[in-house]
Structure formats: structure tokens, C-alpha cells
Amino acid sequence: MLKAGVLGAGHLGKIHLRLLQQSENYELIGFYDASPEVRKAIADEFGYTPFDTMESLIDACDMVDVVTPTTFHYECAKKVITAGKHLFIEKPITNTIEEAEELLDLAQKHNVLGQVGHVERFNPAFMSVNDSIQTPMFIEAHRLAEFNPRGTDVPVVLDLMIHDIDAILSVVQSPVKNVSASGVSVISETPDIANARIEFENGCVANLTASRISLKNMRKARFFQKDAYISVDFLEKKVEVVKMKDAPEQPDDFAMILQNAEGIKKQIYFDNPDVPSNNAILDELDAFAKAIKTNTTPIVSLEAGTEALRVAKMVIANF
């Protein structure tokens, strides 16, 4: 088992502590939080071992899970990597592209693996159709959330939209050609609502909307490609796959047939895969353990996290 520790014991940090303790791939060594009061409270309530310094926790671990506020990601991650320990780090990877690129160089220099916590990659709905999404040419994503003061220290693009940016980059796999965007600050000092149009070199266009002041929660993406439409509901864990194929000579009475102006007939059919239930955070942590044990590239590598941040920054720059 890999010895694991957590840096940061806030809302998400406590979730990671619980799941690392449950995992069969890790031995939870303990945690560090900058607040002595938080360290004592977490230790008293849950029994996790508190460490008095960040460095002492890092030294005791094989893998360190950084779940601090984004502004501290770079500082913490640099200490983890230079100590020769594997790094799991929450999204966004860092505050700036320069910081992320330095972490990439350091990870290569110290021969350690890193994974970024873009948890929607492990959403069972997205995973169930991942192989079916082949060269999408138009993508539409909506990520709407009710207001929560937690996370408003960064623009909604880095708080919410970056989830969809990462997922879309993973399936399009083409360089970004152009970005246009708009953002509005309503209640925070940074934009609370944003819309972005991302154009890729292969011709694909993605239209993304994110809001953290909505009246209801929504996390949906729709992928349009030749002969197929795929809808993913990240929140409800549901998918809808509509495909078209050449109509048979003699379709049955219940077949749905479309005929275009050239007389070509297509049959519409539904191919909705089963969506198993899972704990996406536990799955991403366990996937990282597997990557460490087999010395293979993590599913959401530091490079992927850096690219998602790069595109997110392009969106923000276009406000």
C-alpha cells in the first residue's frame, strides 16, 4: 500500500481524508493544515493523525494529496515534488501557467508522477460514453450552480467551467485555434457568469456556459458528431446516445426513418449504455495509485491539467 497524506483539511480535504482511509490502495498516514485549530478539531473528531509541519508529513509519505486553496497549490506541490514524492493535486493545477509549467519540469527532473483532480473524467456518465465520442464537431456544455461563497475567490471559469474544458480537451484532442468569451460579475469581485466559444484546428466548436448564481444546479454536455448525438448529464449521472445508420431495405414497422433531400434514408436508434454508480473521487485516487504502481501516465496528467488551465486563462483573457 502507498503511504498517503493530505495537505489542507477544509471541506474537500476532509472528503479526501475519508476516502484515502477507505481505499485499499493507500495507507493514510495523516494530514497537515496551516491552522492549528483546524488540525486539532479534525484530529479530535475523526482520529486522523495531524502533523505539525508540511515538511514532516511529506517526508512520511509516498504520495501527497494537495487539497489546499488554489493560491497555495504551487508552493505545496513544489515541496512535494522536490522531496521525490508523487503528487495528487486538486484542480486547477496552479494559479498561473508559469507555475504549472515549472511543476511539469520539476516532476520530470525528480521522476515523480502527478495527477490533477479533474473529477468529471471519472463521472460514470462521462466514462460510459467516452469511447463513443469520436471526433465531435460541435459541443455544448452548461454548468450552473446555486450560489456558494466557497470558491468565489476565483473567476467562475476556474471554479466551474474548467471541468468542462478538461473533459472537452480530452475528447477533441486538437489544438485550440481561437477563443472568444464574455463574463459578468454579479455578486463577486470576479465573473460569476461566463460564456466561451472555443474553436479547434480540426473544425470542432465548443460553446460553454458556466454560472454560480443560478436558481438550480445543472451539469450537462452535448456532443454532436457524424451520425451521432451524445448527451451527458454529469449531475444526474445519465446519458442519451442517438445514432443513425443506413436504413435497411425493409425496416420494421416501429423503425424511425429519416430521408434527406437526396433521398438517402437513415434509421435512428438509441444506444444508451448502463451507467454504474461509483464514487468519482475515490476512483480518481485509486486510478492514480494504479498509475504509480505500474509507472504509467495518469488519466489526468499534470500536462492535461496544465492545458486545461491554459485554455481557461485564454477564456478569462477574452472577457
UniProtKB/TrEMBL annotation:
Record-annotated Gfo/Idh/MocA-like oxidoreductase N-terminal domain positions: 3-118
UniProt GO MF annotations: nucleotide binding
Start and end residues of each GFO/IDH/MocA-like oxidoreductase domain: 156-216
Highest taxon in the source lineage: Bacteria
Listed InterPro entries: Gfo/Idh/MocA-like_OxRdtase_N (IPR000683), Gfo/Idh/MocA_Oxidoreductases (IPR051450), GFO_IDH_MocA-like_dom (IPR055170), NAD(P)-bd_dom_sf (IPR036291)
Range of residues in the leader sequence: none
Protein name: Predicted dehydrogenase
Native source organism of the sequence: Dokdonia pacifica
